[in-house]
Every structure is written in C-alpha cells, then in structure tokens.
Design brief:
CATH architecture: 2-Layer Sandwich
Helix content: 40-55%
Number of helices: 5
Strand order of the largest sheet: 2-1-4-3
CATH topology: Beta-Lactamase
CATH class: Alpha Beta
Shape: globular
Number of strands: 4
Length: 168
C-alpha cells in the first residue's frame, strides 16, 4: 500500500510540474465600451419614444461599470426622475440583468431578495442592458412613464435605434 501511495504522489507531482506555463503573464484586460456618441443617440431615441407616447421622462446611459455617460431630463419630468433613471441603469449594469427581471427575482421570500438592500439598487422596470458580441457595454435607465413596462418600452425603442452601431 505504501508503494502505491508513493507512486501516486510522484505521478501527481510530475504531472503538476510538467503542465505548460504561459511565457506571458496576463497583467492587463481589454473590454468593449460604448462610445459617447452612441450613448447620446440612445438617450435621444429613448426620450423621443417616450415623448411620442406622451411621457415626460429622464434617461440615463451608463457604461459597463455603471458610470454615467449621458443623463437627460425632459422639461416636465419629475424632480426624482434623473436619480431614478440613473439607479435603474446602474442596477442593470451592476447585476448584468434587466431591472424588470430583477424585480421578479428579488421579491420578498425569494433567495435573492437580500440584494434589494444594496445601496443604489433599484429593482423596478426601466433599466436595460446594452450588449454586443456577448459583452455588456452599458445600460440605459428610463424613469417617468406610468410604470416600469412603459419605461422599458422607451428604452427598447432607444436600443433599436443604436442596433446597427453596436454590430458594425
């Protein structure tokens, strides 16, 4: 039994030390980012979609890390809407999930309900991810329409407007 154990240990060590080692150490990462011009186009298209539906809203576009790129508030949108739009976009970017999905997943009594306690997280519809080629590049948040579904609708129409820009 001792011979078997020693042989096993020698084989294990030999295999560990013979694994190929990369000559180049990975010290930097690269990622895709949403260009500011595209973020502005998204905000304008989302705002226009809400205006056509009769809603005065605020739109926030954040980068993949949740940092604001664009924030616009229509002239009659409520005072709370810029912060709410930002928090929806931040939440979608941070959790890598649309906020309407998070609203369902984090209801009281569900295992994920605790994330509702995260500072700035806002689990109501209106925050959508912006993705291209399998990478999250940002998120958009809309606030001020009568309900999260209508905020989502405006954001989706904005995303349609930048679709070609994302897949060039």
């Amino acid at each position: 039994m001792k011979i078997f154990t020693n042989t096993f240990v020698i084989l294990l060590l030999t295999s560990l030390f013979s694994l190929p080692v990369s000559a180049e150490k990975q010290t930097l990462v690269t990622y895709k980012a949403l260009h500011p011009d595209v973020a502005i186009k998204l905000a304008k298209a989302s705002l226009e979609a809400c205006r056509k539906a009769g809603y005065q809203v605020a739109i926030a576009v954040v980068d993949r890390m949740g940092i604001t790129q664009v924030l616009v508030r229509d002239q009659y949108a409520g005072a709370h809407t810029p912060d709410t739009a930002y928090r929806k976009a931040w939440t979608a970017a941070s959790f890598r999930t649309n906020t309407s999905e998070l609203a369902d997943m984090t209801q009281a009594g569900k295992p994920q309900s605790g994330v509702r306690q995260v500072t700035q997280a806002l689990m109501i519809g209106g925050g959508l991810l912006i993705e291209t080629d399998g990478s999250v590049v940002g998120a958009v948040g809309v606030s001020g329409a009568p309900g999260g579904e209508m905020d989502d609708m405006c954001a989706k129409k904005g995303l349609v407007a930048i679709e070609e820009d994302l897949f060039l």
